[in-house]
Structures are given as structure tokens and as C-alpha cells.
Amino acid sequence: MSLSKLSGLSLVCALVLGLSACAPEVGSEAWCKQMKEKPSGDWTANEATDYAKHCVFK
User: Fold this and answer.
1) 55 Cα distance to chain centroid
2) How far apart are CA 3 and CA 1, in angstroms?
3) Which of 11, 20, 25, 55 could lock onto 32 through a cystine, CB 3.0 to 4.6 A?
4) What radius of gyration do the chain's Cα atoms show?
5) Residue 31: Cβ within 10 Å count
6) pLDDT tens track for 13-41
7) How far apart are the C-alpha atoms of 27 and 39, rounded to whole Å?
8) DSSP code of 38?
9) Distance between CA atoms of 34 and 17, rounded to whole angstroms?
């Protein structure tokens, strides 16, 4: 594997890890607030289930 490919792969991995670290934990107050502000038509089925479980039926 060339150095440029290895550098690119490392950059992509760092970016993915950095972005995932910024997301609030599912079920937290910050997550519930973020989901409340997101249009419900953009929610996934898992997000809707988690929202109901953690934010509505506490």
C-alpha cells in the first residue's frame, strides 16, 4: 500500500471517529432535544423507536 493511500485512509478513519464522537448518546437529554428539532420525516425507524422509548415513555 502506498504512503498516499495509507495517509488518505488514516484521514478518513480520523474523520469518521471525530464525527461519531460529537453525537450525543442515544437516550440522553441532548439526544432527545436533537431529535425533537429534527423533522420526524427524516427519522429512521430505529431513531423513532429509541425516541419513544427514551424521550416519551421514560
Assistant:
1) 17
2) 7
3) 55
4) 17
5) 18
6) 565 655 566 889 999 999 999 999 999 99
7) 18
8) S
9) 20
Residue 9 cell numbers, joined: 485512509
If DSSP codes are grouped into helix, strand and coil, which group holds residue 44? coil
Pick the closest to residue 31 from 8, 14, 52, 11 (CA basis).
52
Whole-model pTM: value is 0.60
Cell of 2: 502506498
User: Are 54 and 26 in contact, with CB atoms under 8 Å apart?
Assistant: yes
| CB proximity list for 10: less than 8 A, separation 6 or greater | none
Instruction: State which amino acid sits at residue 10.
Output: S
